[in-house]
Design a protein that fits this description.
Helix content is about 45%, strand content about 10%. With about 400 residues, the chain is α/β, with parallel strands linked by helices. Helix 5 runs parallel beside helix 6 (about 140-155), helix 8 (about 215-230) packs across helix 9 and helix 14 crosses helix 15.
């Protein structure tokens, strides 16, 4: 924190400052420009990317680590900085057959949760490289691939990071390799959770592990985010340490608790986060938890179903049929569509069908519908997006 920021915070702390000054700063779905406590990992990634500064593309790579290790935060921040400082430079990019001095180098980060098909993958890369609008429909995947190949053949070179590879609804490593490796003047970095040995496909030879946060490092992350997003001294160090100890290296879950506790305290018009706020926020985070990034990347109609679901009482979630009826009464979707969405969400781990003890009409226990994500945090994120 620089001196200007320190003085500003002192001035604000003397007035009627809200407890939460910036929800984005404490949000588990937001990334900061300079991730805390990941210097060695950033150096390792820069070592891998070092060939670009000598005019060569790096080899393809696989970056991996457990949930909440900060993979997305690190890779996104690094590619954003490289895009700002290197993209469009006069760097000479050498290929196996020639050196081309007339092209530009680009760094493109793609989220596979939204670019979840070969079409989406090609479109996301192409959209980052060209100024004109890239169609979202009405054109085939092959045409988009050919257009991207022509763009690269015309003097461009690109390093593409594909984040969240291998999740229930995203392309796996083999799909990324099949669709990007044949393109000349393009290197890719796939980012996922499984260890290389656990993959069905052979990962590229360059493999970079991002381990889980150590507890003191996670506490530093929380302190940094709280400093940026909350009023001065809004949460005590003991509260930060408690969250970090509970989260056990998972930054997503830790930030979900920080966000939830701060929001609960703000709703009660308190100036500080209390221990009871942290307890309630911890209780709201399932373990294991579906990343909120996956939930907010869902199509709007499925997010709307999730938003209604989190407000249903236990009786209304006692079975898929009961949840379907309750949700249908609140949204402009047919019962068949709502039920299909609930089954899809269960198959991908966003919600869980928990077998009840009571038998249904045909002697089979009904399945209670339980969200597998932090509901209070999602509620706030969704409502803020819609301006509520």
């Amino acid at each position: 924190m620089d001196l200007t920021e320190r003085i500003r915070r002192r001035r604000e702390s003397s007035g009627d400052t809200p407890l939460v000054r910036d929800y984005d700063a404490i949000s588990p779905v937001s990334h900061v420009p300079d991730p805390t406590g990941r210097g060695p990992i950033l150096e390792r990634l820069l070592d891998y990317l070092d060939p670009v500064f000598d005019g060569d593309l790096p080899p393809d790579a696989y970056v991996w680590g457990p949930a909440g290790a900060g993979k997305s935060a690190v890779v996104t921040a690094l590619f954003d900085h490289l895009s700002a400082q290197v993209t469009g430079s006069s760097t000479v990019i050498h290929t196996a057959t020639r050196a081309d001095t007339g092209g530009d180098l680009a760094f493109v980060a793609v989220d596979a949760r939204t670019a979840d098909s070969p079409f989406g993958l090609y479109r996301a890369v192409l959209d980052a490289l060209v100024d004109e609008r890239v169609p979202t429909r009405g054109v085939g995947t092959d045409r988009l691939r050919d257009r991207l190949a022509r763009e690269l053949a015309g003097g461009r070179a690109v390093v593409v990071a594909v984040d969240h590879v291998g999740e229930p609804t995203t392309p796996d490593l083999a799909t990324v390799a099949d669709h990007l490796s044949p393109l000349a003047r393009l290197s890719w970095v796939a980012v996922g959770r499984p260890e290389p040995a656990a993959l069905d496909a052979s990962p590229p030879p360059e493999r970079i592990e991002i381990p889980a946060y150590r507890r003191h490092a996670l506490a530093d992350v929380l302190t940094s985010r709280a400093s940026a997003g909350l009023a001065d001294r809004a949460i005590e160090h003991e509260g930060v340490r408690r969250i970090a100890d509970w989260a056990d290296g998972d930054a997503h879950d830790a930030l979900a608790v920080l966000f939830g506790a701060a929001d609960r305290a703000a709703a009660a018009d308190r100036a500080r986060v209390h221990a009871a706020d942290i307890t309630a926020a911890i209780d709201d985070v399932p373990r294991p938890s579906c990343a909120l990034g996956r939930v907010v990347a869902l199509p709007d109609n499925r997010q709307r179903v999730c938003r209604v679901l989190v407000d249903l009482d236990d009786d209304e979630r006692a079975s898929v049929d009961a949840a379907t009826d309750a949700i249908t009464a609140r949204v402009d979707l047919s019962p068949g569509t709502v039920k299909r969405f609930l089954y899809e969400l269960a198959e991908t781990g966003v919600v869980e069908r928990v077998r009840s003890d009571a038998a249904g009409d045909h002697g089979r226990p009904p399945s209670r519908v339980e969200p597998r994500f932090p509901t209070a945090v999602f509620r706030r994120l969704y409502d803020r997006r819609d301006g509520d």
